[in-house]
Amino acid sequence: MPSNDELLDAISSVLPPILNALDVLGEVGRHLHPPNLRALNDAVAERVDPVRDGLVHFRETEFPDHFDGFKDCVERAAEHVVAAFEGLAAAADDPNGPMRAYRAMREQTRAVEALYPVANMLPPVSRFFVSRPRRGDDDLLAKLGEADASRDEVGVMHATRDEWADMRGTNVETTGDVRRGGFSLYVPEYYDEAEAHPLIVALHGGSGNGRDFLWTWLVEARTRGAILLSPSSVDRTWSLMGTDLDSDNLAAMVSRISQRWNIDHDRLLLTGMSDGGTFCYVSGLRSDSPFTHLAPSSASFHPMLLEGTSRERLADLPIYLMHGVLDWMFPVDIARTANAALSAAGAKVVYREIEDLSHTWPRDENPRIVDWFLGDTSAAG
To answer: Is the pLDDT of residue 296 over 80?
Structure first.
């Protein structure tokens, strides 16, 4: 059996390269823009070799049986990191490069999901899952280190459409994908039932699902003590036209979660990307919407959406509206129209037109959004 030093050496050979590579992939995702694929790949391609080499060393080391869970998490995270870099490299030479690059970024998401259980075992990994501005916050890191992550009511949870239908006592009609109509949920490990916690509801884009999109927001929720709900649309995307299949489902999820956890009903944020951002308008502007704040990003908008709401709903409604100047799917003029129409109708709009943002989620905006949501508007300008 290897010595402790040999085990530490094996862990050190792969874990820091994984964390560094995930940081790099996060930057790639943030700056993903079709014309830049080749340059992005060339800038980061060399970051994958330390992960490959470290994984070989890690696998060659014989760990004690009680390390099996840890070993599996690290190996899967490394495999997904390698797959993400390989997918990005392939996208650079593919005529359908943008779509292939987006698929590569899903491997990055799966790497993060695989690695997350290790945050409860090793402080460097726990620090990785803290918002960058707070990674030096000793009090927060100590609170995370002392939290009992084994409690049933905390951590990452998932409910398929069938499980959620059973909870509601209803039959949720969906496509064949069991993720449709279900949700993923994160409750901070230091959750205190004596305190009311803000709720963030994050809506994926048109080709996504809640399980993947959860990781867009988990770091900020973990850092700020917010409960995070990431649903999957009932159909292949959100109900943007025709019968609204999703709003009642969202409201029922919020109600159900409020019965189990202590939710601050004065701080309910609905946010989303692309089709999810558009559905923030469709659902969040309804007069019966439970949400107190809206934060759509990279979304489509038409002034006709205002016909489905009321003057009372729009009056002073806080909306944090983001859009990229480089957006190739929904031109930035759409957001400018939304800003003008919503402001004229009485909403309190914070408008963020981001010069270097394409059609992707701006994760570096999350701290500002949460500051605005929780009442610290100094960071939202």
So the answer is: yes
